[in-house]
Structure of Glycolate oxidase subunit GlcE:
Amino acid sequence: MTDLAIHSVDGDIADTLCDQVRTAYEARTPLRIVGGDTRAFYGRAVEGQELCLAEHSGIVAYDPVELVVTVRAGTRLDALQSALAEHHQMLPFEPPVFGAQSTIGGAVATGLSGPRRPWAGAARDFVLGTRVITQEGKLLRFGGEVMKNVAGYDLSRLMTGAQGTLGVLADISFKVLPIPTASHCLRLAMSLEDALGKLAELGRQPLPITAAAWHAGELFIRLEGGESSVKATRERLGGEALDAEFWTSLRDHTLDFFTLAEGQALWRLSLPPHTPPLSLDIADADIFYDWAGSQRWVKTALDAKTLRDACQAAGGHATCYTPEAQGGAAEPFTPLNAVVEKYHRHLKTQLDAHGIFNPGRLYAAF
């Protein structure tokens, strides 16, 4: 028999939220959508009436056998992760937790993933379905609770990373996975050039690597999987043991690296796999190579154009994680080209005709 757990904890305030959205739509009042408000730094500041989802929380349904959980958007990440851990399961995309009030709705809305992302998948890869409050204040369901349950436009995954600009996430269904039975973390003294070469070599082999990073002359690797596989790879790679909390601290930006000096801003460079070091004049910068080098955290006073030009030349893009009020870029996200902007505008018009959902959060124009 399926071990199905249904919870009615916390509260369902979907009707109240729908009423608030409907009123805002009729009055054309901008809304600032808030859960735990721990990710306010990510994106442009929003001016509007607060729509708070913190009380719309709790696990609606959880089936550990089918590896599916449905949860309200205001549910705190730590509560959801604890419930999953009781059944030795986890959210595979390893969402960052930027404070005790971090919610699962905020994690999906920002679309951010942790160190495991290149090996397990991104947040949108594990979203099965959602209930969304539309501009007219209607509560509609998209997707379902199985991986192949989408006919037509996949609005559920479209909401992932949209930062609430297309609608209000009310409930979200996820595919979850078992926590690996064995784990070992290690560190190796190694130059950046050697580390990038080593990671490219290891990436072509069926090894149980689920995280890889480099900083200040050290390569960090996490191994997860079966006992024998982890043991064999650990013996092969050698190195010193590394506390597993290192990856949690990297995920949540609590490593010492993420402390900024005066005049610095934190940037995330997203680049194709195996991209060599960029040709930047970054004598004042400190760089942390994550995701085997595909994601690079840069602390620098360099201007946005210099960073973005270098990333674009390499086939990537740059995002500023420091708010403009604290010395970050006025436009945190890479400007869209004309064709992509056209489609963004069209989509925004269809789903948010009066521009009430987090206006200006992604780009000043919409």
